[in-house]
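User: My collaborator and I are trying to settle a disagreement about how two of our proteins should look. Neither of us wants to argue from intuition anymore, so we agreed to look at predicted structures for both before our next call. Could you fold the first one, then the second, and keep them clearly separated?

Assistant: That sounds like a sensible way to settle it. I'll keep them separate. The first protein:
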Amino acid sequence: MKTNLADKIVVISGGAGKQGSIGQVMLQRLVDEGAIPAIIDKSERGKEYAEQLQRKGIDALFIQTDVTRPEQIESAVQRIGDKYGRIDVLINNVGVNDGVGLDGSVDDFMASLRLNLVSFWCLTKYCFPYLKASRGNVLNIGSKVALTGQGSTSAYAASKGGVLALTREWAVDFVPHQMRCNAIVIAECYTPSYETWIEGLDNGEEKRRSINEKIPLGQRMTTPEEIANTALFLISDLSSHTTGQFVFVDGGYVHLDRALLSQAR
């Protein structure tokens, strides 16, 4: 089955993550399907990624953007619109679990909201006129923390809870325009950042085994490739009648009975 993403203009925030990150893997999978990525990210890696693609004859655009600055987001979207004349898909992929809990400052809490939630709203706001014209769609990248809690990360939990609420709200807003909005909910995904955290622990391997054992399907973490493949499905014509959904790519981590774990061994 074909995704029909060829030549679609796909805006992806957080697309300049490290090699093997969710954002970088999604970027590569978009290119594999023939989509034209417009990368919005603070990291200069985005310039390198775009230039690598351009040297291969692949159209790509990188706009270095601090997504906590609404005026930079507005300017970035305007540049994309000026170059391509349209936007077909927006993937809101920014997310940093910054550990701002009740012992954090109000300023830190608000800064986390600006990064992890307000940036989603701003990008969607400024992309909306283009998406409306193309009958495009929005995909939000969420986290199980919004639903399960985690402890000592109030700001991130609040942000990701807001992301899921906005997913449903925008799905309603988009209905008159024949547009869609969905979210992927991630639990434990083994990214480079996750690996760095594990390696920094005194009992890193023990901790990783402990986490893996709590994941019903396969007793392993989700891969970035599995997130990216689901993202392609949700933004493509293959899911043309799917909207307002929270799609959990987590090996059953959030919903399945933990009694399954003893049976799986």
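The second protein, kept apart from the first:
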Amino acid sequence: MQRPPIPPPEAATDHPPAPPARKWRRRAVLASGAAALFLWVRYLPQLPEIFASGPEYHPIPGLAPFRSLDAQGSVTAQGGGALIGIEPTGEAPSWHAWVPRVTSDPCRYLFAGGNGAAVPVAYFTDYQCPNCRLLEARLADYAADHPESIVLIRHELPLLGPSSVIAARALLAARLQPGSAAFERRLMQGRVVANTQAMAAIAASVGLDPARLLRDMQGQAVQDRLDRDRALASIFGFFATPGCVIGRTAFLGALDARQLGRIIEAEAALGPVRCNA
């Protein structure tokens, strides 16, 4: 019986066999996936801005030239009924009497004369509001990086209960004495529980008259300032904190630093605010 022929051996070669093509394809897919993941993480925060056509504004009725920004940052205090409601006695809150006054001349009360070459920035804050601290820090950083470009005007809007009201009264009362800046720094950095004893102790530690501070906290000047700021907040629709008005643009919440910078630059390009123009 004849055996089948044995095939000849393959020719020897000095070159190693080429790796399978599918191995290189797998590597390419993995590399592409890693690059896509990096780009996604890198530009995810910017996607809303990349695809957005620009900020949307809405005129605030009766407050020309002010406009509200169709965007909101992070808020803390939900004032709601406390902002527009009725006192437990059934009487209207004392700040209601200020509404016609601040509506007739919003620039005067909102910016307190700070309406020159620098863009005026009025912000409404609560001592116990963490998002207020974020907004204040971002505005302070912008002011430090852009000297004389903005002027900051603080308004008290204590919506988080009795401790917020005590802290607001103490800050306003301290401003009636020389050296109030030291009191404000100590209060904001210490994060103490706001009560009258703590406010008097801080006043004494920074060289203020604690007895006068406690008297002024209950005085008419401080009450008028609280009522004025609450009335301003109501006409701009700030039912929570922080609220902010940059030039003509009003918005609620702590926007990020990039958004704040763009609003400030846009307002600077428009020039000084002319109320009721």
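Some points you might bring to the call about the second protein. Strands lie at 57-59, 67-72, 77-78, 119-125, 150-156, 240-241, 243-246, 249-252. The chain has twelve helices and eight strands.
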